[in-house]
Design brief:
Layout (H helix, E strand, L loop, with lengths): L1 E6 L4 E4 L6 E3 L26 H8 L5 E4 L23 E3 L4 E3 L5 H10 L3 E6 L6 H12 L5 H8 L10 E4 L14 H18 L4 E4 L12 H10 L5 E8 L6 H4 L2 H22 L7 E9 L23 H16 L4 E7 L8 E4 L2 E4 L3 H10 L3 E3 L2 E3 L2 E3 L5 E3 L1 E7 L4 E8 L6 E7 L2 E13 L18 E2 L2 E4 L2 E6 L3 E11 L1
Helix pairs in contact: 3-4, 3-5, 5-6, 8-9, 9-10
The chain binds alpha-L-arabinofuranose.
């Protein structure tokens, strides 16, 4: 099959925010304990951090790491996790029915972020706590020495403020499962009050208001609208969450998931324009897609009041990796709307890597993320795709390819393409209206014949990328995207 992608260097959606390649670490299951922090492990460094996890996280080049939840944050008292470890209380965690030992808290997280080459994106508890506790955490993290909480930080070993720039005002507050869940009007007031106090201490911080927790919620967009209308002046982002699933085992249908992701982003773009128009405002609010991934196979969420229980340790296969690539393609295409996005999560819990005492397993979804984070730069080129379609079950005729493209200031073009067809390779001819491709500089592909193929401890490299062919021909880039495949291709261009 043949497809044509037409680009124009002047036709773009603006600069791509590297923060779309961010991550999420929650106190849940074995994400923190046995994941990032495992002081008894021979693989741990002097701070008790797993070095193999640190190295793999660095490979994902994540600019931000959202923490500490998730649902966990809504019944969490951050002051439990600071100070001498032997004086920190163990607490029952309402969200995951687990025992939280508090041996890893704010200061350990900040230290871990430094080693992981990432920056903290802190969530405050607006479920069971309020504006004062949120403000105290900003004081602890961002104020110079000389006030109570800042001095507590200094006493705990850190003189300089951490300078946390991005803060989430609670988590999924429209969800009945959420500790302290409230209707939109009440959350909007809580969020606005917290925002004023938090930005009162540090006006440089950016705030994320909770949007609805998903498109299947009755509150979808309505919650978001009410919150945004109330908090417009104080927030920079609204959050969106989505977990994709293939319960019916219908690969053709599942691989059209990108169409739904595009719709969600378009819904939010419309909402932001609507509220902006109603307010006659010049301000822009953007989307923080701060939980996204595939999650439907591993649904154990009851920790039975144990420490570091095995919860939602999803095993990812090839088709899941192709869906994850489509999330990132969608974020790149809508660089004008999506400024932050966090894959949920990073280790053990619905994650690109799994640990056991003697090592680390890289899952299929790690690979498109790593390739895209490495090669995305510059601005997002609008994509005019002429492409064959395939039958995606109840989702109907759907383009076989899902693509995104970006161009940096040095004339380096990167193209990312998913082929949803399970049977046919698609040869893609990429042409630029106002430029010629001078050289193909590299390509990688992740593909296979079995959509359920997955890495395992016995076969850790069953799904991994291989070097691929791309060619510059007659001023165009030509690359074949294999069936059930993902390709990252790079080229240099010169303007005509
Ligand atoms: O990522 C797991 C959970 O999914 C998060 O805690 C919550 O925000 C979402 O429902």
């Amino acid at each position: 099959m043949l497809a044509t992608l037409t680009l124009d260097t002047e036709f773009h959606a603006g600069p791509i925010d590297p923060r779309i390649f961010s991550g999420f670490l929650e106190h849940m299951g074995r994400a923190v304990y046995e994941g990032v922090y495992d002081p008894d492990s021979p693989l741990a460094d002097d701070d008790g951090f797993r070095t193999d996890v640190l190295e793999a996280v660095r490979g994902l080049r994540m600019p931000l790491m959202r923490y500490p939840g998730g649902n966990f944050v809504s019944s969490y008292d951050w002051t439990d996790g600071i100070g001498p470890r032997d004086q920190r209380p163990a607490r029952p965690d309402y969200a995951w029915k687990s025992v939280e030992t508090n041996q890893f808290g704010v200061d350990e997280f900040m230290q871990w972020c430094r080693k992981a080459d990432t920056a903290p994106m802190m969530a405050v508890n607006l479920g069971t706590r309020g504006a004062m506790e949120a403000q105290a955490l900003v004081e602890y993290c961002n104020m110079p020495a000389g006030t109570y909480w800042a001095d507590r930080r200094v006493a705990n070993g850190r003189r300089e403020p951490y300078g946390v720039k991005v803060w989430c005002l609670g988590n999924e507050m429209d969800g009945p499962w959420q500790a302290g869940h409230v209707p939109a009007a009440e959350y909007a007031r809580r969020a606005d009050q917290a925002a004023k106090l938090m930005r009162g201490l540090d006006p440089t911080i950016e705030l994320v208001a909770c949007g609805s927790s998903g498109r299947s919620m009755g509150t979808y967009l309505a919650y978001d609208r009410e919150v945004l209308e109330y908090c417009w002046d104080h927030v920079s982002y609204v959050s969106a969450h989505r977990y994709s699933s293939n319960h019916a085992g219908d690969t053709a249908w599942y691989l059209a998931e990108g169409v739904e992701i595009d719709r969600i982003i378009a819904d939010y773009a419309g909402l932001f324009d609507y509220v902006r128009g109603m307010k006659r405002s010049d301000k822009r609010v953007h989307l923080s897609f701060d939980e996204w991934n595939v999650w439907y196979k591993a649904m154990e969420m009851d920790g039975r009041w144990t420490k570091a229980p095995h919860l939602i340790e999803e095993v990812y296969n090839l088709e899941d990796a192709l869906v994850c690539a489509q999330y990132l393609n969608a974020f790149i295409r809508r660089a004008d709307v999506v400024k932050v996005a966090c894959i949920a999560q990073i280790v053990n819990i619905i994650a690109p890597m799994l640990t056991r005492p003697d090592g680390l397993l890289i899952q299929s979804i790690y690979h498109p993320f790593a390739l895209m984070a490495r090669h995305t730069a510059g601005r997002s080129l609008r994509t005019q795709l002429d492409c064959p379609t395939y039958k995606a079950g109840s989702r109907g005729e759907t383009p076989a390819l899902d693509v995104s493209a970006c161009l940096d200031d040095e004339g380096r073009l990167a193209l990312f393409a998913v082929n949803r067809s399970q049977t046919d390779a698609v040869t893609l001819d990429v042409r630029l209206n106002d430029a010629v491709v001078t050289a193909a500089t590299g390509a990688d592909a992740l593909h296979g014949s079995d959509p359920r193929a997955a890495n395992s401890w016995e076969a850790p490299n069953a799904v991994e990328p291989t070097p691929w062919q791309a060619a510059a021909q007659d001023g165009r880039l030509r690359v074949t995207v294999p069936a059930l495949g993902f390709v990252s291709a790079r080229a240099t261009i010169e303007r005509k």
